[in-house]
User: What shape does this take?
Amino acid sequence: MMKRSALSLALLAASVTSLPALAQSAKDFELLRNEVLRLRKELDELKGQQAARPAPASAVVAAPQPAADTAALTERIEQVELKQKDAVVAGDIPGSFRLPGSDTSIKLYGYVEVNAVREFKGANGGNDYSTFLPYAPLNGSTARKGETYLHARTSRLGIETSTPTAYGPLGIKLEGDFNNDPRLGGSAVSGDVKAIYTQQATNSYNFRLRQAVATFAGFTVGQTWSTFMDVDNAPETVDFNGPIGSTFIRQPVVRYTYATPDLGGFTVAVENPVSYALDSTGAATKSGFSKTPDLVLRWDKGFDWGAASLRGVTQQVKVVDDDAGTNADKRGYGIAGTGLIKLRGGQDTLSLGLTYGDGVGRYFNYLEGAIVDANANRILMERALGTVIGYQYKASDTLRANFVGGWQKNFHNAYTDYALTNGFGAGQYGVNKRMYQLHAGLIYNPVKNVDLGAEYIWGERETLAGEKGSLSRFNLMARYTFN
Assistant: This one.
């Protein structure tokens, strides 16, 4: 027994000594986990040895174990328990760690980002953090002016967790940024006096919810990107919003994806029903919101040459206004296809996207979607087509160039006729007939997790009345990502 205890103590001492080195190595988390499991087994054996030692009946029957040996064994056991408690063990998702005393893996991610923007032409509809072509000032407008501003409000913070269950991992994601002005109750605009006061003092912005979503056994429940939006195959831009002509929307969803090894993934989802109709003045009607969830169907598949996605959405627009005697109901729809093609042996990529719909509304960036004609007790829907094309050229492992274009068109129908007749097919906030936008930028990655970007953006819009407006801006960006 004495020899066995001595050997165990020697092994235990060596193990305890090796723990700090293992914990300091980012590449040795799996080895650390196995070492902790081995130490737990050794610890159980040592405790068993200690418990099995009989108390000496007398000095004649058995010689007592040295008190020093018992004290040393107890001390070693305490050291191992302490090291196990303090050890950081790798989690089940990349870049995560296991919460002590739990099977849950947790990962912190996000980035700190600073942008410097120079508006050469137009005031960009009042936005400073990103482009928003649909409301760009019209030619000859007094709002046309050059502006320069810096901001860090698109900086992002997120938490991702994974917990094993008998039916697979349960994932949680909670993410937000600071793109919310506390004085305005939403995203601030550079020309607003309240925003100017904020920037002259503390430049404070509230934390804004982006994603709060759970994933489990093929289900996704919570607020995240719409199923109708293809985030993975979208082209990269320095600008926060990106080009016109694509889908850009986050909202609460409940969806299920059935993945197959050969045919790809098939997804069905119900999503937040907030499609609305405008009244004869161009304002949203007080009762003009849909009553049933939007329905989205989707197919995705990866190939050796890239990836492809097809999607469809249908949404209800319903207006019930007893005061006006209106009870109208109509269903809109949208279809979209996107793809990513690998070029130059996979170094470069070509992104393609096409979206079309009748009353697709908010799933575009940006359309109103529908108008209620109270006199005729009917809903008129906007019919639109949008396309996006992007090419990324990787000059080296640290330098990439992005060239992106977006185009969007409203087709002539009863919706456009009603808008013109009632006076909201013209002016800065009038319905647009067509828009197109171009991005040309460079992103340099001098060291890991650091991106330095520069991008020029040009866009032009034309209202239903034939008025034109444009934007021209230059955006510098510095970002440090942690994950």
Notes: The chain has a mean pLDDT of 83.
